[in-house]
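Worked example 2:
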Amino acid sequence: TSNTLSGVAIKTGADPTLRRNHIHDNKQAGVYIHDNGRGTLEDNDVTSNTLSGVVITTGADPTLRRNHIHDNKQAGVDVYDNGLGTLEDNDITSNTLSGVHIGIGANPTLRHNQIHGNKQVGVYIYDNGRGTLEDNDITSNTLSGVAIKTGGDPTLRRNQIHDNKQAGVQVYDNGRGTIEDNDLTGNARGPWDIAKDCQGNVTRARNKE
């Protein structure tokens, strides 16, 4: 707690296991994983950090399970610059920006996460970010459930994307994506907000609208 930089930093192939820690009120990220760092983070409480709760960048590839990542001053989880990572069964809520950022060539896998009540988008994919999102519950975020722009090209399957204050899925500014078998009901501005010039970039199939 209350460290000048991040609470935990993992880099250059380091591969620790962190379980049941309370990582909070640090002046940068809660957990900063970079330069091909790995690590297994399970059942931690990551909250109230000045930057994002967890940052994954420059080839880092950690596994995050059952963490509560909430009330951080930027995103809950920020994956960029070719970061990877597997996120399963995490509760990502009430962060000042989006629940999860995926950008600049990042390609994480998100399964069975609860991404809800964040102050911007649930999952924001930009600048050629990719990502595979399967069986997540993305709900009650202040903007759209999922927003895709500037070459972002994720795959979304079997997610529950509902009760967001704007659209279920928003695609604009050369966004792309494959969006199949999702439940997009109950969003304030409807299931879709896809810019005309992005219509041909998005593959949609069997979504519940």
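The chain has a mean pLDDT of 98. Residues 30 and 53 are 5 Å apart (CA to CA).
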